[in-house]
Amino acid sequence: MIVLLAVGAGAVAQSVAGFGFALICGPVLIAALGQADGLRLIVTLSTVVSLAILVPTWRDVKLRDGLLLAAPGVVLAPLLVWLLRDADKNVVTIGAGVTTLASAAALALGLRLDRLRGVGGVIMAGGTSALMNVLGGMSGPVAALYAVNARWPERSIRPTLQVFGITLNIATLVSIGGPAIDWWAALSLVAGWLVGSLVAKLLPAGRTRQLILLVAAAGGVFAVWRGITG
Predict the structure, then answer these.
(1) Nearest to 219 by CA among 3, 2, 10, 49
(2) Where, subcellularly, is it found (predicted)?
(3) What is the pTM of this model?
(4) pLDDT reported for residue 161
(5) pLDDT tens-digit map of 12-26
(6) Distances (CA, A) of 195 to 43, 54, 118, 127, 225
């Protein structure tokens, strides 16, 4: 029951903010299924909910931006899986979390991050997202921060992040052994997506940026906590 509730809550977060699925349900699934099987299910379900979000919002997608942002991660995912076999994953997770948290804080203060712009920004954001995806399925926070810093139109952020996430998730699944599915979890995912879609429609205009920064900061804090306690 806890697993199903976590999956539903994660789907709500993803539907409202455009990311956050793994942040909510990742710890529960990994604790219940183990690192390898839990990660495969997280990335699989994240791909499914991203598709569900994308279908009704595809007209607002910035397709080129989403695919370009995913490109570094697609290239790096297999290499990262290989490199992290013997690495201290806790140290890497803490570093990724600190980077995410610092970026979210800077943007919340109104600062523009020059390094998170242009080709260099795409490579940095895409590569870091791939790293966090391989570690725990959390590809969204850094990509969302890039979108805010690049000032994508608010209506385009949610659907474009789904294009990014689907593309990177497919590359990650190929690298970690293919998809996994649990039909009860899938039903909970659908319920969460429906609730989240209703909430997203009620979200006041202009609040997307604040919500993204809040969820991304939470992702950074969680990554640090997971690295310390892992």
Answers:
(1) 10
(2) Cell membrane
(3) 0.85
(4) 95
(5) 988 888 888 888 888
(6) 21, 16, 36, 32, 29
User: Dihedral of CA 68/60/165/20: which sign?
Assistant: positive
Residue type, position 202, single letter: L
> In sequence order, which residues have a C-beta less than 8 Å from that of residue 215 and are 6 or more positions away?
13, 17, 19, 20, 23, 141, 144
pLDDT at 227: 79
Copy the structure tokens of residue 30.
């990994």
Rounded Cα distance, 88 and 178, in Å? 24
DSSP 87: S
pLDDT at 114 over 70: no
Q: Are 126 and 132 in contact (CB under 8 A)?
A: no
Q: What is the C-alpha to C-alpha distance for residues 191 and 135, in angstroms, rounded to an integer? A: 27
What sign for the dihedral angle of Cα 199, 201, 203, 209?
A: positive
Mean pLDDT score, 217-226: 80
Question: Rounded distance, CA 72 to CA 81, Å?
Answer: 14
